[in-house]
Design goal:
mainly alpha, globular
Length: 81
Amino acid sequence: MVGSIIEYPGFYENLSLYENISLHLQYEKQTITDEKVMELLKLVNLDQQHYKLFSQTSLGMKQRLGLARALAHNPKNTFIR
C-alpha cells in the first residue's frame, strides 16, 4: 500500500480532527481505538488540538491531518506500529 496527500486535503468541515481521522479509519474498515487515533494525531503534532473543528484550523494543520490520514493504514516503510 501507498499513502498519499494532496495540497488541500478534503475532510468534513463540521467534524473535529479526532472525528475526521476516526471516520476515515471506519471507512477503511480498521479497528478504531482512542489510542490509535491519538497516536496518528500525535505523529503529526495535532494531539493537543484533537477537539478543534476542521474548519477552525490553518492550512498547515489541514495538511498535517492529511498526512495522518495517509499514514492511517500503515503504508510500507513507515514507523507506525
